[in-house]
Amino acid sequence: MTKPTLFLLKPGFHDDKGGPFFCPDCAAVEGFLKFAPEVERKLDVRRIDFPRPRKDIIAMIGAENQGCPVVILTEGDPIPAEAKRSLETGKAFISGSLQICEFLGRTFGAARPHP
Fold first, then answer.
1. Are the CB atoms for 105 and 94 separated by under 8 Å?
2. Is-above-0.90 flag for pTM?
3. Which of 5, 16, 30, 113 could make an S-S bridge to 72, C-beta 3.0–4.6 Å?
4. Is residue 16 part of a domain?
5. pLDDT of residue 25
6. Residue 29 lies in a domain
7. DSSP designation for 74
8. pLDDT of residue 49
9. 114 lies in a domain?
10. Number of domains in the chain
11. Residue 91: φ, ψ to 5°
12. pLDDT for res 1
């Protein structure tokens, strides 16, 4: 069975502004996974390095969508309203920490962000 793929940036990266840094949006999703560890087991979680190009993401949803965090939905599953579709590959995905946490909580029956 294919699982949705969740891409998160590894903490401790450096860029032209210095570092070490972490991605606040990825940290929010990591926090959700700590609250709901059963959800992480239902995902293909890939923690990747900060520098672009992010080839694994590009291969799935194109270069224009390589921001993190992002969850790429499995083909054949219902596509929620908040999902976008890659113009390059046609795959559906959700970006943004709150949108991802809401989707994962709703989909897997876990706690969701308070509105």
1. no
2. yes
3. 5
4. no
5. 98
6. yes
7. P
8. 98
9. no
10. 1
11. -75, 145
12. 67
State residue 80's pLDDT score. 95
The residue type at 115: P
Instruction: Please compute Rg for the chain using Cα positions.
Output: 14
Please tell me what DSSP assigns to residue 34: H
What CATH code is carried by the domain that includes residue 96? 3.40.30.10
Distance of alpha carbon 50 from alpha carbon 66, whole angstroms: 11
Residues 71-93 have pLDDT tens digits of: 999 998 899 999 999 999 999 99
Token pair 């926090």: residue: 31
- Judge whether 79 lies within some domain: yes
In terms of residues, how long is the chain? Answer: 115
The residues near 99 (Cβ < 8 Å, ≥ 6 apart) are 82
Region 7-24 average pLDDT: 98
Q: Which domain holds residue 89?
A: 5-11+22-108
Mean pLDDT of 3-32: 98
